[in-house]
């Protein structure tokens, strides 16, 4: 599923040239789609063959938070840095209210974002990407 962002958000978000105004606009980014897929990631549930979103950072970011809310199921959030192969997985569990979240400082690079599902089912989700704590 391809997500089409308005031109100003695309420029701000994909290049991540931050200023106060940009941080506020980037904080408004929400991507919707269907979780899961046919590929067993082995550690982060079932994912689609292509990422739901690709995040390119041109500079280090002190803080970015990604959260997923799904309409059912047991969502997961998998971030893969293709250049290094590093993987970050967050599982939606009862303690977290079934809302997987990954946050912290991020180094420059490209990150592939997958919204998975612990079962083979698919559910509508909203992925929110924020630069505010």
Give an account of the 3D structure.
With 133 residues, this protein is mainly beta. Helix content is 13%, strand content 45%. The protein has 2 helices and 10 strands; from the N terminus they run ααββββββββββ. A hairpin with a 4-residue loop joins strand 6 (75-81) and strand 7. The N and C termini lie far apart (29 Å).
Q: How would you describe this structure in keywords?
A:
single chain, 133 residues, mainly beta, 13% helix
* CATH class term: Mainly Beta
Largest sheet: 4 strands, antiparallel
Helix content: 10-25%
User: Strand order across the biggest sheet?
Assistant: 1-10-5-8
Mean pLDDT: 81
CATH architecture: Sandwich
Secondary-structure class = mainly beta
List the helices and strands and how they pair.
Blueprint: H1 7-15, H2 20-27, E1 29-34, E2 39-40, E3 46-47, E4 53-57, E5 61-70, E6 75-81, E7 86-91, E8 101-106, E9 109-117, E10 124-130
Antiparallel strand pairs: 1-10, 2-3, 4-9, 5-8, 5-10, 6-7, 6-9
In short, what is this structure?
The protein has 133 residues and is mostly beta strands. The protein has helices at 7-15, 20-27; strands at residues 29-34, 39-40, 46-47, 53-57, 61-70, 75-81, 86-91, 101-106, 109-117, 124-130.
């Amino acid at each position: 599923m391809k997500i089409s962002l308005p031109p100003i958000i695309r420029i701000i978000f994909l290049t991540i040239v931050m200023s106060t105004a940009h941080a506020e606009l980037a904080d408004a980014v929400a991507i919707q789609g269907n979780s899961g897929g046919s590929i067993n990631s082995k550690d982060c549930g079932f994912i689609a063959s292509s990422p739901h979103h690709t995040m390119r950072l041109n500079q280090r970011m002190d803080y970015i938070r990604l959260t997923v809310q799904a309409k059912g199921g047991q969502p997961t959030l998998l971030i893969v840095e293709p250049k290094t192969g590093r993987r970050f997985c967050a599982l939606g569990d009862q303690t977290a209210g079934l809302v997987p979240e990954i946050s912290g400082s991020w180094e420059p690079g490209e990150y592939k974002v997958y919204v998975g599902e612990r079962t083979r089912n698919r559910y509508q989700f909203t992925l929110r990407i924020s630069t505010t704590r």
